[in-house]
């Protein structure tokens, strides 16, 4: 056997040494994380704090200070020498408590910056757990924390950056039964949520509790930022008295979102919250900032109406005096998960197993994929025809072309989750494009990947 | 017939109803009349109806509300200000106005 040259050995050795060093660094980082996490657990347990008493921890008035310590002065030096902020601004921030609702794309940068900047107490609410598909935008979490509570993960990250910030993780779904006492125990509330129901809930709880609400939202390449219930400005209901029809609301998992976009808005929310706490730039003109990453003018700030005297929530004679059922009010759940649609009875649909059987038998059929092209380009089943649902009625002739000479060919309709495939199948039935059967595939390509082909990508 | 030159803009996903156009320059009549109201200067109510009829490419119910206004969840701006400050539906559209329709976002 030919022995390897000395150059090959040296190169391999140097490669292994580099890998070894990288692993050492990762071990050190994880050790620190583990220590910070378990230290906090010990503290919580020593104080008799368990999950149920977290609220009382948030409710205890936290100790305010009249001067900063030397380590704090060293840490915040660059802010302390800022004209218009200075030691008073930093003290105001230290003596302020803020609640971030949502540790997702908006909440991630917002929590990092607020914790780093020196907010005295920072509450973080989230009921969800860390998932790989979050990490392109929710940069406060990491690979190693998959499955961990997002509230805990975000709190841990903030503690690792700044131990002076007292972080409280609220690992729960905020609803009308628990929101008010939590809201009441903070000075400034940050809406970093992902659904309409929680946005109305936060608005109403902030009006009832007399708290300013720094609200942000993002989708695709667009973002919006507004402060509600602040200095005579409007509340969310002054602007949007009735909730949008549920079918007009698009979530990030269906509409997509460029990771940086909620990052930009989340940073702006942190900035606005700091400005409120430190009482700087107090304008009496309510505004909304609109961010369009794709437009030639990326930012535009528009003048908003003031508080509406006839608003049912914040007006002179409000008719809503306590929290209501927001899921019912909005006709949509308080999450950004896509609910399953049941338009067509199950027995008229097809399971992925049944479709697998048809493929295996080589039974002639047309497979129609009704996802948007941008999704079809990621992955698709072989020999499927792509016509997005919204174009289907216009392009029905394309389907008919495929059937030329085989008018009894069955058509199977597939989409990502088995929702859009149902109205599509209905449309084909109404148009009578085939005399054969028309069925859609329950659970769509997601379920195909889960049940039939683990190699098929999920996004 | 006299016309008004108006710049219409769409954001927050509104553009999807307008064939992905974020900005459209339009000429609309400077007066409207219908059965209920006699000939009058073009107002926002007229502009919204005109836009729905002439520009919306698909699913007009995602643009129109049931009272001649836009559906809830759409904020309208007249020259960079909330249209509520300008009189909402009764605002008389002026030549050169910039009207923006923004769909409120909920993602995060």
From TrEMBL, chain A:
Which cofactors, by name?
Zn(2+)
Which SUPFAM superfamilies does the protein's record reference?
Activating enzymes of the ubiquitin-like proteins
Q: Which family does it belong to?
A: In the N-terminal section; belongs to the HesA/MoeB/ThiF family. UBA4 subfamily.
Q: Which organism is it from?
A: Actinomortierella ambigua
Gene Ontology biological-process entries: tRNA wobble position uridine thiolation
Q: Where in or outside the cell is it found?
A: Cytoplasm, Cytosol
Span of domain Rhodanese = 361-457
Q: Tell me one GO molecular function of this protein.
A: URM1 activating enzyme activity
Cofactor note as given? Binds 1 zinc ion per subunit.
Ligand binding (Zn(2+)): 235, 238, 311, 314
Can you say what this protein is called?
A: Needs CLA4 to survive protein 3
Superkingdom of the source species? Eukaryota
For the ligand (ATP), the binding residues are 105, 126, 133-137, 150, 194-195
Record Pfam families: Rhodanese, ThiF
Q: Which UniProt keywords apply?
A: ATP-binding, Coiled coil, Cytoplasm, Metal-binding, Multifunctional enzyme, Nucleotide-binding, Transferase, tRNA processing, Ubl conjugation pathway, Zinc
Give the matching InterPro entries: MOCS3/Uba4, Rhodanese-like_dom, Rhodanese-like_dom_sf, ThiF/MoeB/HesA, ThiF_NAD_FAD-bd, Ubiquitin-activating_enz
Q: What are the catalytic residues?
A: 252, 415
Q: What is the lineage of its organism?
A: Eukaryota, Fungi, Fungi incertae sedis, Mucoromycota, Mortierellomycotina
Pathway assignment reads: tRNA modification; 5-methoxycarbonylmethyl-2-thiouridine-tRNA biosynthesis
Query: Which residues, by range, are in coiled-coil regions?
Result: 6-40
Q: Which HAMAP family match?
A: MOCS3_Uba4
- A Gene Ontology cellular-component term: cytosol
Asked if the record carries the keyword Transferase, the reply is yes
Automatic annotation (TrEMBL), chain B:
Where is this protein localized, as stated in its record? Cytoplasm
Q: What is its main location?
A: cytoplasm
Q: Which InterPro entries match?
A: Beta-grasp_dom_sf, Mopterin_synth/thiamin_S_b, Urm1
- Modification type 1-thioglycine: residues: 108
Q: Give the GO cellular component terms, alphabetically.
A: cytosol
The pathway to which it is assigned is: tRNA modification; 5-methoxycarbonylmethyl-2-thiouridine-tRNA biosynthesis
Pfam families in the record, alphabetically? Urm1 (PF09138)
**Cross-linked sites for Glycyl lysine isopeptide (Gly-Lys) (interchain with K-? in acceptor proteins):** 108
Which key words are in the record?
Cytoplasm, Isopeptide bond, tRNA processing, Ubl conjugation pathway
GO BP of this protein: protein urmylation; tRNA thio-modification; tRNA wobble uridine modification
PTMs per UniProt:
C-terminal thiocarboxylation occurs in 2 steps, it is first acyl-adenylated (-COAMP) via the hesA/moeB/thiF part of UBA4, then thiocarboxylated (-COSH) via the rhodanese domain of UBA4.
Q: What does this protein do?
A: Acts as a sulfur carrier required for 2-thiolation of mcm(5)S(2)U at tRNA wobble positions of cytosolic tRNA(Lys), tRNA(Glu) and tRNA(Gln). Serves as sulfur donor in tRNA 2-thiolation reaction by being thiocarboxylated (-COSH) at its C-terminus by the MOCS3 homolog UBA4. The sulfur is then transferred to tRNA to form 2-thiolation of mcm(5)S(2)U. Prior mcm(5) tRNA modification by the elongator complex is required for 2-thiolation. Also acts as a ubiquitin-like protein (UBL) that is covalently conjugated via an isopeptide bond to lysine residues of target proteins such as AHP1.
Q: Which family does the entry's similarity section mention?
A: Belongs to the URM1 family.
Protein's name according to its UniProt entry: Ubiquitin-related modifier 1
- The species this protein was found in: Actinomortierella ambigua
Ranked from the top, the taxonomy reads: Eukaryota, Fungi, Fungi incertae sedis, Mucoromycota, Mortierellomycotina
């Amino acid at each position: 056997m030919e022995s390897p040259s000395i150059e090959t050995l040296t190169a391999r050795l140097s490669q292994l040494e580099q890998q070894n060093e990288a692993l050492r660094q990762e071990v050190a980082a994880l050790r620190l994380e583990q220590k910070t996490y378990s230290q906090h657990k010990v503290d919580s347990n020593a104080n008799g704090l368990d999950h149920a008493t977290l609220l009382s921890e948030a409710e205890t008035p936290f100790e305010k200070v009249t001067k900063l310590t030397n380590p704090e002065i060293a840490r915040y030096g660059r802010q302390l020498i800022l004209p218009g902020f200075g030691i008073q601004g930093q003290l105001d921030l230290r003596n302020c408590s803020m609640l971030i609702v949502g540790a997702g794309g908006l909440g991630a940068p917002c929590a990092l910056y607020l914790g780093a900047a020196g907010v005295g107490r920072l509450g973080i609410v989230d009921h969800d757990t860390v998932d790989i598909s979050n990490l392109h935008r929710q940069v406060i979490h990491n690979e190693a924390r998959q499955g961990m509570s997002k509230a805990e993960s975000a709190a841990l990250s903030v503690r690792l950056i700044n131990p002076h910030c007292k972080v409280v993780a609220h690992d729960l779904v905020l609803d009308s039964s628990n929101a008010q006492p939590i809201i009441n125990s903070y000075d400034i509330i940050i809406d970093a949520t992902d659904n309409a129901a929680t946005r109305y809930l936060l608005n109403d709880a902030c009006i009832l509790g007399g708290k300013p609400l720094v609200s942000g939202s993002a989708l695709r390449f667009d973002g919006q930022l507004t402060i509600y219930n602040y200095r005579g400005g409007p509340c969310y209901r002054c602007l949007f008295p009735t909730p949008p029809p549920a079918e007009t609301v698009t979530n990030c998992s269906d509409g997509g979102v460029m990771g940086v976009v909620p990052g930009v808005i989340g940073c702006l929310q942190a900035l606005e919250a700091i400005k409120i706490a430190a009482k700087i730039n107090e304008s009496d003109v309510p505004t909304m900032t609109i961010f369009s990453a794709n437009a030639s003018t990326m930012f535009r700030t528009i003048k908003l109406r003031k508080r509406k005297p006839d608003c049912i929530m914040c007006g002179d004679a409000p008719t809503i005096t306590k929290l209501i059922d927001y899921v019912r009010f909005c006709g949509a759940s308080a999450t950004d998960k896509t609910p399953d649609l049941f338009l067509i009875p199950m027995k008229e649909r097809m399971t992925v197993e049944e479709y697998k059987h048809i493929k295996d038998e080589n039974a002639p059929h047309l497979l129609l994929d009704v996802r948007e092209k941008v999704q079809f380009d990621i992955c698709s089943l072989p020999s499927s025809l792509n016509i997005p649902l919204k174009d289907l009625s216009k392009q029905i002739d394309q389907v008919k072309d495929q059937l030329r000479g085989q008018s009894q060919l069955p058509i199977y309709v597939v989409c990502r989750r088995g929702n859009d495939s149902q109205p599509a199948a209905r449309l084909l039935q109404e148009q009578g494009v085939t005399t054969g059967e028309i069925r859609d595939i329950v659970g769509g390509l997601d379920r195909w990947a889960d049940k039939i082909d683990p190699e098929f990508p999920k996004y | 017939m006299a016309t008004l030159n108006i710049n219409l803009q769409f954001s927050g996903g509104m553009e999807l109803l307008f064939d992905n156009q974020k900005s459209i320059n339009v000429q609309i009549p400077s007066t409207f009349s219908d059965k209920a109201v006699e000939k009058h200067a073009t107002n926002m109510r007229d502009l919204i109806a005109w836009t729905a009829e002439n520009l919306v490419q698909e699913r007009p119910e995602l643009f129109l509300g049931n009272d001649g206004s836009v559906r809830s969840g759409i904020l309208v701006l007249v020259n960079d200000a909330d249209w509520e400050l300008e009189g909402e539906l009764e605002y008389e559209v002026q030549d050169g106005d910039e009207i923006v329709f923004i769909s409120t976002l909920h993602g995060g």
